[in-house]
């Protein structure tokens, strides 16, 4: 049905237009149908679409190096619009090991797990890092994570079945063959069996893994 004020307007217009009764009825039916369709379209739109959020398909680029200087910049690429944007820059602060999550860093590992982006180890420009932090994608806020047992720059990182694995790297003195596993439930790192060869800058991949 037409809203009461709309019906009054249409009725008065039809009367003043001196049109036939049959035409008046058809006009009312058409207008009621149009308004009903508009109402259905509005109510069928999911309200969640209007809430601010990141796109579902998005790439994160965090930190890195430019002319030898570590970066504190976070950029995101929207795969739907093919556009880049700065979404959550770090705050410049101290580069002290394992204290601030917002210090610039490069040559770190990075993985996505449970809607969080983990930034692991790396190099601050002054010290090699064991510190870790995570960017919560839903709120775009940073949280500290328990540091690794070993400083690791040029570290390989991957997720398998809900765990984060880091392998090899460089601690500022030696290339490493050690590896660690992080549990999000306990917020702790633990050593796993070391690799047979010391290495850094290595690629790491998961074959037929199961991630949540």
From TrEMBL:
Protein's UniProt keywords contain Repeat: yes
SUPFAM superfamilies: Kelch motif
Classification via InterPro entries: Kelch-typ_b-propeller, Kelch_1
Pfam families from the UniProt entry: Kelch_KLHDC2_KLHL20_DRC7 (PF24681)
Swiss-Prot/TrEMBL keywords: Kelch repeat, Repeat
Protein name in the entry: Kelch-like protein 10
Source organism (scientific name): Plakobranchus ocellatus
